[in-house]
Structures are given as structure tokens and as C-alpha cells.
Amino acid sequence: MGGWKSSLRGNQREQIIEYIHASNATLGALIEVDIAQGLALQRRYHQGDKEAKAGVESLVGVPLAIKDNIAVEGFQLSCGSRILEKLRAPYSATAVLRLLQAGALAVAKCNLDEFGMGSDSQHSYYGPVKNPWNEDYVPGGSSGGSAVAVAAGMVPLALGSDTGGSVRQPAAFCGIYGLKPTYGVISRFGLVAYASSLDTIGILAEDIALLRCSFQAMRGPDSFDQTTVKGPTKVAQPHDPATCHIGYLAEPEGLEKPVALEYQRSVEALQGLGYTTRAITLPYLRYISPAYYTIATAEASANLARYDGIRYGYQPADAESAEELTRRARSEGLGDEVQLRILLGNYVLREGFQDRYYLRAQYIRKMLRHKMELLFRGIQALLLPVFPSPPFRRGKEGMSDFQQKQADSYTSLANLTGQPALALPVAMHGDLPLGVQLMGREHSEELLMDIALRYRRHYSPSRPPRYPGVIA
Amino acid sequence: MTTYIGLEVHVQLNTRTKIFCGCPNLFGAPQNRNVCPICLGYPGVLPALNQEALDKSFLTAMALNCTINKRTFFARKNYFYPDLPKNYQISQFGTPIGREGFLELQLAKGPRRINIIEIHLEEDAGKMIHSGDWSLVDYNRSGTPLLEIVTAPDLRSGAEAELLLQQLRQTVRYLGVSDGNMEEGSLRCDANISMGESLPDYKIEIKNINSSRFVRQALEYETRRQMRALEQRTPLRQETRLWNENRDLTEIMRSKEEADDYRYFPEPDLPTFYADDGYLEKIRGAIPELPALRRQRLMEQYELEGPIATQLCATRELAELFEAVVGEGVEATLAARWLFGDVRKELNHRSLSLTDGPLNAQRLAQILLPLQRGELHIKLAKQLLQALFDEGRDPQEIMQDERWRPLSREKLRTIIEGVLQAHPDIVHSIQEGQRKALGFLMGQVMKRCEGRCDPQESQELVREMVGVDESQ
């Protein structure tokens, strides 16, 4: 991480910029690169090292890429959608602002599945993102651009958003770390809403130390987001593996063979590192995905209603009425997957049908929360698969959109309960990486990061051979 | 046959800033001046509830005798309209601020209780302006806090509805939560009306009623229309009608079948608000004495007649000024007479309200106290009031000026001479012993002096000049 700090001010600057553009031309991870604007923001907001929190490693000069559904003043805010094609953010997200104040250098906006809806980063108006380990494969999604930017060594740190696994799944597919924090710990102000009660800003990094210090810089209450929480003020003590109980699934359902195998091996690896493991059964697994999609699409149907072609974004010419303007802006400006989810959301919220869908989903969510709280009385962390398959192929040979939705159960659980989860790389399967995730009690991010750091004694990820980066 | 009328009254709260952002809450600014990314519904923004709006809502609900919901949250009401930036309105559904309240309608034959079903807080929308081929939107009003007061169908005529609206306006002004100005749209109302032997199962909603006079007119028109329909046995069905103020009639807007499904669901961007007992006690302590009670007290305390007390209580400012003037020692009836007469005349003449001119209780008392003691002529008192408004100075100070000073003895002598010459008969009769007639001469003298003489001094001089002395 040390090498990154003044990389864009030092003599490697041109080399780095050249590398970013060259690799991006193939990978499609970044949809806007503007180092000058990044430097201007840093000059304006950086508060100097003296204000950095004691014991927190500095972020000064660290290049940062931000998923294009998070506002960074002066940068575009397209959400990967035609409907926001020309929009420039008039303000910065609180999370971004806090990183800028800590000295980070925002340099690029990352490609994504349109409005965060997808698991393969192939649903973007700006074209598909490719996996740097094998370009025929998807990088995961929806924060695929963020994951690829980090994995390919373009930047050491990227922000993503995780509504049902959108940070953890691409992190796992690209062989890096991806944290979905406790709901409400990082302000959502400036994160373009997909499903407000599930959305979190997440972090993608190849280095635990950097992940940790960026998390610490961003966390905490924000008056612009009244759903933020304070969290514990006490600094977490270093954990002792001997007394740290980690749960795991004795018989994980629905996993493809290589994933099941590496999952089992990672349980053994944790035992080898001195942890006490305990086999558990996950409650209501088959209800997770239906409940998740009911709530997410219901909220999305309202959240995405504002894109009407009136105040900003794509505006069809010559509409005869406000109604026609809005209808055409949305039909022409929003992609199929987004339109599908909006329709689903409208369907589940219809008057007279809420009992059957929306309210039932909320009830399942409540039960899940309760069960998971009970479960975490006996364990400190829970080891789970991220995705039932390894990275899949791009195009028709890959997974259908419906298969991808069904595969979200293991990740969307943490979004439904609001608990934190951290994806970490644990192995290679051929030329593609595999990951698992650690889920924990509310506000246990530090513990999850400690465990992931310790896991590096067993497995330490590397860069893709074709994308070694400039800074090691 | 009974007429059942219920009102849905919208009251704009006069908070310093809008309900969910920091924009000033002002009427009359140039178009789209008081706007920001939040009230324009830009991608990524979140609402942050204004505490002042919540305080004023609780205050109003308590003053209208509602049961308070200690646990209250917001909901999204989904519909598309160009003046609604998010295409959903943040409102309340299921947990309004208050419910089951009432208001005593002050009818000529005595008060009658009108039940209030609920009071809830929501955000106002912008305004559509149609101009030629264009439709324009002004978002200044977007995000203004709006209190919706829903009454039971307890009103029986348009006149009663008009009175209720006037009383509600008076109440919100007393509470200081709104200026209640219908012309500026701070107070708006929709009406529901149906007719039957008992409450029928249909109701007709009338929208677009922009003044209390129109409320009466629209409801009277609708009463006649529905009566005629019932007489002709034409079935009446649920529908929404618009008041056409140019043609003085209501027109169909949409039938029940076309009614919107608002797909309400809880607003995930705002937390549930809990009002604890301490908070509610504080708010309750801030409820001022309301018009009906104050009127009663004024009648008893100052022995005033009903109509006078009613007039004095028209606004809180007037009632307060009255009581303050009386507190200075001015007789109640004199104070009331002046407030309704000369003071109102001066205010109207100068287009001032009671509080934005130079008038205050001490200043008014400086005029009325000498008047009441007979030290100041009524004519002079009126001139003094004018001077107070012209110059904005204390009457006591104004009276120090040359033109207000008593006339010189020489000048006084000239005036008395004039009076004596004009009434030789009376002078003669006094000299004959008709001492009572002295009073008439004194009156004439005082009149010609316009009060600018000391009565004691003038009387002595008159006696001397007529030729009768004290002892006689």
C-alpha cells in the first residue's frame, strides 16, 4: 500500500495513467477517468494529516475508484444507465467526502450493472466488464468495475455498493477482499438508491490494512442520513483464535463441486489457524431469495420513479405531453433488467396484494433477523459460501438472469439482517479465483477483518498474470 | 335527507427550512430559487426530517385534541406527476402524528363538535405552470412541510365548511405554525360530500378549492347537484370532481375505477420517531390559549360583550395587544373601541399588519390614558395616533414638540375673546348668575383650541374675562 501513496504525483505518474487506460481498454472496468478533477477535490477537501485519527493508517494520496452509482462532485453519475447518461454529480456522497478529507484521491468512476441490478456486470449501457483473470468470464457484479479496477492493479481501493451481494460476489470472482458493513454504519447519502433498506456502500481492496483504514474513515453517523448509527466506540481488542468460535455449514446446499470443495478446505484452514469451528444449519435458506427480491424490487420501484426525463438525464425530443415524455424517457432510457425489477416491485406492492408478497417478505426478514441473532449467541463469525458457482462465462454459455437471482441467497442474507460480511479469496480454481465470506454480528467488521488477515497465513492472493499493475 | 361533508385541509407549516433539506421555506421567491439536489430529487439524496416540522405537527395535533402517536413513521405514496420530483410523496400512512381529535365549531346557535379523524405530516409538491405550448415546473414549493387535517363527515353545509376553515386558519395562526394564507396556498382544502338518510357508501371528492368562499360555493353547488340526482333517482357513485371557479360549478375529474393505487409502503430512508413523555410535555406546555377559551375569559375578566370579545380574539396578536393595553391601565371598552376604530383605520390605510408597524401597547396607552383622564382632547388623540404611525416615535416624546405644546396665555386669551363675542347672550346670562352656562363656553374654547390648552388654566381665564370670580 505504501507504494500507492504518492503514485499519481511522483515519477511513475505517466506510467500508471498509461497502464490504467491500456488495461481498461480491454477490461471495461472504468467509465470515467479524471485525475485532474481528483487532484482538485483532494486540494479542496483534504484536511491534513494532523486531523487523521490516531492509530489509523493514512489514506493520503491513495488513488480511489468509485462505483458510478455513488456521487463524486464533478464526476459523472450514470449508474450505468442511458437515462443518466449526461448527468454530473452536483455534490459528493458523505462516504466519498470522508475519504477525500482523509486525503484519498478520487480518480475514476467504475462500470456496473445498471443501477446495481445484476450479478455479472454485463448489464451496463457502457458495455460489459471482463474478468482480468480470464476475459471470457464475468467479473461478478454489480460492482464488477470496482472489483476489476482493484484486481487488475489500476487502483488499490474502490467503493462499491452491496444490496444483495454486489460487493462480495465480484470481490470473490476477482480474488480480492470485499466488505459489506453493518447497515447504517456508512452513510448512504450520495449512494443512488436501489433498495434503501438493503443498500450499503462497501469497500473493495487487495489489502486488509487499506480496507480497514478506509472503513474507519467512512464510518459513523451522518446528519444527511438519519438511518446511520453510531456503532461501538470501544476499539476492538485483537482476537484470540482459541476463543473465537466460527460457524460453518456442514452440508451447504446447492454448491457446484469446486466451490463446495474449497468451502470445506477453508473450514479446515480456519481450524488449522487455531479457530474453533462449529457446524450449524442455516435457517430458512430457501426463503431468502424470494424475500430479498420482493423487498428489493418493491423499494426499487419507488426509488427509480424519479428518472422521468424532466429535471436531468436522458430526455427524448418532441414529447407532446409530460406523460409521453416520462413514458418514453423510461422506456428508452432504462434497460430490460431494470424495467423488469420495477414491474415486479409494482406488482408486489399492489393494493390488496401486499399481504401475499410485500408484508410476507417483511415477516420472513424479521424471522431471519431473529434467528441469526440467536445463532450468533453461540458463534462470533459464520463462514459461508459467496456464490454457488465459480466465475461463469460471459454471454449465452453463462448463467441466465433467473439463475443468477436464485444464486443470491448466501449473500443477500446479510443484507436482509443488516449484519456485516466480508468476502475473502481462498483459492484458485484453474485460472479463476474462488472466495468465501465471513459474516458476523452487527458492528463486528474489525473481527472479520482480523480473521481475514490471519487467513493470509494460509492463502495470500496475487494479481492476474496479464494484469500485474505498475505498483506492486 | 342529511348532507355529510368532511374536509381534508392542508396546512403549510412555517418552518425556517423545508421538511427534508436545508432550503429556505419561503413563498414568493423567483422560480426554482429555493431548491437543492434533495428537494429536486437528484439521484443519491436522502431526506433528513426537520425537527421543527415535527414539533409544530405535534403542537397542532395536541391543540386539536388528538390522541398522539408516540411512535410515528413515514410512508411513500407512489404516483407520477411532473411537480413531484421523486414521483413519490413522503407522507404518513397508518401512524399519523395524531388521530381522533376534535374542534368546536362556533355556530351562531352555539358550539358543535367536529371530529378530526387524523392529522399527518407530509411534503408538498412543486407547481406546474402551463404557458402556451410549454409546461413549466417551479420546485420552490417542493418539500414544504404540509400538515393534512382530515375531518369526519360532521359538517352539514357549505357555510359550516367555510366556518370550519376559518376557525382552523385562526387556530394555526394562534399556534404560530402557519400563516394560514389561502391566497398564497398556505391553507388548501379538498372536500368530501355525500347525501342520504344515513351516511351513504359513496362520497364525492371536490378538489381545487382555493379560498374559503369557494369551499362554500362548491359545496352548495354540489349539494344542489346531488339533491337533484337523488330526486331523479340517478345513482351517485364515488368520483373526484374539480371546482371550476370561472364557471361556478364542479366537473368530473375521474371515477372510482380510474382511482390511483398509491402502493403505500414504509419509507425506508427515515427512522421511526419516538416521542417520549418529556418531549410531549414540553410541546403541550407551548400550546397557547386558543380563541374560544380566550374569548370566554375576556368576556368574564373585562366584562365585555360577546361580539366584542369575538372580534378581539380574531387574531392572537390583537388579543394580546388588547390585554397589554388594558394592563397599562386603559379601560377595556375604550381600548377595544380604539383597536377596532382608529387603529384599524391607520393600519388599513398604511397596509400594515398589527405587528409590523410601530404600534405597541405602551405607545397606545400613552395616548389612551391621558384621553381617559380628560387631559387630552379626542381630536388631539387621533392626530397623535397618526403621528405615531408617521414618525414611529413614542407619543409622549411627540407631545414634547412645539406643535403639540399648549397655547400661550396670549393666544388663549384671543380665542376666549372670540368665543365670548360669538355668544353675548350666554355671557350675559352668566353675569346674571346662570353659572352652569360656563360649561358651554368652556366646551367652545376647548374645541377651538383643539385640546391644546390646560383646562384648569382656560377655566380661570374664562371666569376672569366674563367677570365672575371664584368666590362668587
Can you walk me through this structure?
The complex is a heterodimer of chains A (472) and B (472). Chain A has 472 residues and is an alpha/beta fold. Chain A contains 14 helices and eleven strands. Chain A has an eleven-stranded mixed beta sheet, sandwiched between helices. In chain A, helix 8 crosses helix 11 and helix 8 (285-303) crosses helix 13. Chain A is globular and about 70 Å long. Chain B contains 15 helices and 16 strands. Chain B has helices at residues 51-63, 158-175, 212-231, 277-285, 291-302, 306-312, 316-327, 332-349, 361-372, 378-391, 395-398, 409-422, 424-431, 438-449, 455-466, and strands at residues 2-12, 67-68, 71-72, 75-78, 88-91, 98-107, 110-123, 127-131, 134-138, 145-151, 187-196, 204-209, 239-244, 249-255, 265-266, 273-274. In chain B, the strands form four sheets. Chain B has a nine-stranded mixed beta sheet. In chain B, helix 2 (158-175) runs antiparallel to helix 3, helix 7 crosses helix 9 (361-372) and helix 14 packs across helix 15 (455-466). The model of chain B has no long low-confidence stretch (mean pLDDT 88). The A-B interface holds A 69-71, 77, 79, 84, 87, 89-91, 93, 188-193, 195-197, 223-227, 298-299, 301-302, 305-308, 310-312, 321-323, 326, 346, 349-351, 354, 358 and B 37, 40-49, 76, 78, 80, 82, 85-88, 128, 135, 137, 261-263, 265, 268-271.
